[in-house]
Amino acid sequence: MNQNGVKKVGFLSFGHWSDERASQTRRAQDVLLQSIDLAQGAEELGADGAYFRVHHFARQLASPFPLLAAVGARTKRIEIGTAVIDMRYENPFYMTEDAGAADLIAQGRLQLGISRGSPEQVIEGWRYFGYRPAEGESDADMARRHAEVLLQLLEGQGFAPPNPRPMFPNPPGLLRLEPHSPGLRDRIWWGAASNATAQWAARLGMNLQSSTLKDDENGKPFHVQQAEQIRAYREAWAAAGHKRTPRVSVSRSIFALMDDRDRMYFGRGGKESDQIGFIEETRAIFGRGYAAEPERLIEELRGDEGIAEADTLLLTVPNQLGVDYNLHVIEAILKHVAPALGWR
Prior knowledge:
- This protein is α/β, with parallel strands linked by helices.
- It has a single domain, classed as TIM Barrel.
- Helix content is 35%, strand content 18%.
- The protein is built from ten helices and 13 strands.
- Strands 1-2-3-4-5-6-8-13 form an eight-stranded parallel β-barrel, surrounded by six helices. Strands 7-11-10 form a three-stranded antiparallel β-sheet, covered by helices on one side. It has a two-stranded parallel sheet with strand order 9-12.
- The radius of gyration is 20 Å and the shape is globular.
- The mean pLDDT is 96.
């Protein structure tokens, strides 16, 4: 368990845009520019992280590294991350270069969440990106293989024999990908839906991201299963003999009802219990959301075992409602909820 209770609290944006009347993000440009503004504003409020989800073939954020680099250039303290990048779509060599550049611009603040991904908008969309599972592999196996290559490349060891007649002088020995950002290898997170993949991530030395859905492995409430997953991850981490302390994040939809806008958007209920569904024939459990006046919200959150186990909490924000409203949502949690729960 997170022993001292203090948490890093950040936001997670899916980066939607649409032509709906209430949307303040009508175009991709709106989302990208507002994401930068939201990260800046969250940093000024004292939030600890600005995280972005990645989806392909959708009106959502898709290409994370230009955005991460821009946020890194416009902020000074806040962690900048993803939750998550679907590794079925990624070239780990190109990704190593992009991630290294973004992390150097942010001066070592990148927290890169990756995963095998979730169902996308098109059938086997990764095939359009030029990737196919090897013989006997599933697409999930391919994602994990891409992730393992990425981790190896981020170590910064040379592996490529130099051209004997290069255009520019080379350092001695085998060459690595550049730019290399020292320390980034320790800031890679795996988004795990099952206990087994959480344990696999621990063995490879990745931090853990656990979202608001996971495989339903025993029928218990979502937050209890999530807490069990985190404990299994930490046990596997200890058994692997890693020297550093791992980090664990969970994400939640949490809204403090402070005014009439909050009550209009989120005060009508309907998400106060877990939901069961199926994702690619796997039974999954979706965690509840929270929306209440601060006093009641504090009491409800005290009983969330998944949050208690984590050191980092990501607040999912309704990005289409605009920067000002989302900063209001974040500020309400930081000022009126987090201190009472010992997160601050």
